[in-house]
Amino acid sequence: MMRWDFLKYYLVSLNIIFAINSYAQKDIHCDLLIDSTTVSITNYVASAGDTLCLMAGYRPQLYLKNIKGSEEKPVVIINYQGKTIIDSDLSYGLKFAKCRYVKICGNGVDSIEYGVDIRRVALGNGINIGGKSSDFEIENIEISNTKYVGIVAKTDPDCTFSAVRDSFTMYHVIIRNNYIHHTGTEGMYIGNSFFLGHTLVACDTVVLPHIIDGVQIYNNRVEYAGWDGIQVGCALHNCNIHDNYVYKDSQEEKLYQMSGIMINTGSSCNAYNNIIANGQGSGIIIQGTGGQKYFNNLIINAGKYYDFNDQILTQQFGIFCKYKYINPPDSSFVFFNNTIINAKSDGIRFMNTHSENNMFINNIIINPGAYIYYDTNGSVNTTGQDAYIHNYLHQSDVFMANNIFERSCKNQYFVDTLNNNYHLSYRSPGFNQGQNLLTQGISFDLDNLIRPFDRFFDIGAYELPSAEKVDHVDCLFDVLIYPNPVVNDVHLKIQVMQESIVNVRIYNDLGFYHTLLHGKKFLIGKDYYLGFDLGYLDSGFYYLSLETEKSIVVKKFLKI
Predict the structure, then answer these.
(1) Which of 123, 143, 474, 504 is deepest in the core (most CB within 10 A)?
(2) Which domains does the chain have, with CATH numbers?
(3) What is this structure's pTM?
(4) DSSP state, 326?
(5) How far apart are CA 130 and CA 154, in angstroms?
């Protein structure tokens, strides 16, 4: 090791060690301590439930092989006594082969959100789950400055044919609460991209890559990916991608590698409650099997700043659903309650001839960039309106209802478009104008609050009222609810900032409510104390709502 490299490792490790005493270390029993000099673990015989502790400090890459727990008791790999920082000159930060039932955690210290920090990988990927590994959980990891991908989970087939579709299946890949940024290519690359077949040149054979049964990707931040933010392929069963924040994807502007979320061939993934903003590529690209739902997504400026002249090859869309695989009988693509703002070309382009019962309901699509192009240069069968939802092949079974298509945000009365706050206000034409989709399984909004809040669905990704943090014109009062959880009696302390006529209501998860107080006049500058007997309610979560004509405050509580 060069003198400077040694000094760098020493100084950073020293700083971390000095800070250890200030950390709230979790009570962790370490079955194996992994110090900064260990770069390979291939002969450790793990027992189910073992904990492998990554010592705090600065370290190079780590390769692990044959680490196996059980479904009930996975082997846990966790940071210990501070943050573990990985700086690798090789092709990986953490690499796994022939491992199963493993959980990689960066939450070993309560005060550190990302306790495992893969800070640089000079020649490859941050985390590589390969070599026929399966059943992995990855959480609270930060990954940045990789030459290629942040997290890879797949085993590519080779001429041994040991990892093709009839010889290997990867199960249960769970990726949550991670922060991935500044990757050379994809933020995540989960599963193979060639579901329909991959040619192995070395043995002149076409093979089918393995599938993944069980993919859950949620609560992640992916920022400044060079290519796609999140890409999933061959995830044929039990796949959900939700509650992720993808920002500034596709920075390298690599043609055909440009999207916030890519659902590739052979994948059956629901995608919902994602926020995708200011990327160079399309918001969501779907090339999967059909039969899934895409709802409550907020997509802002998809491809808007991608400079191109070719309106045929290099368009970028809010959502692009493209035929790539012959869909199973009776499959469908449904798009509910998405809000799509300023897409470069079409808001949604639908390009599929094999699916049936496709539905586009309760979506808000504002200012698609292709509107003027179609209006002035389109064919005889294309008008500016096609830029909102473009049924490109005009052969699909498509139903549309209760959508808002507008050129400007002005008349939608969003809360604060300058700061990308696309919650509705009470003056919005989307308020209470949506189709009820409870029978379709849509019972919450992008803030994970109940939908519908009242009897009627709102249009777009957010239900009104959707959260206490939303500024609904003015906040006229503050509310304290206690105790919480509630056994029988609930008490409210209400501080009034403006004279108001107030209704107090309770809502359940299905949006049904009953009124506790109606038309009560509250005077400014006075605190009010109210009590209600809720012993008649069943156990569960409820929402207490204080409503006026100008403002609303919602408090969630648990009845036990």
Answers:
(1) 143
(2) 1-147 (no CATH), 477-559 (2.60.40.1930)
(3) 0.81
(4) -
(5) 5
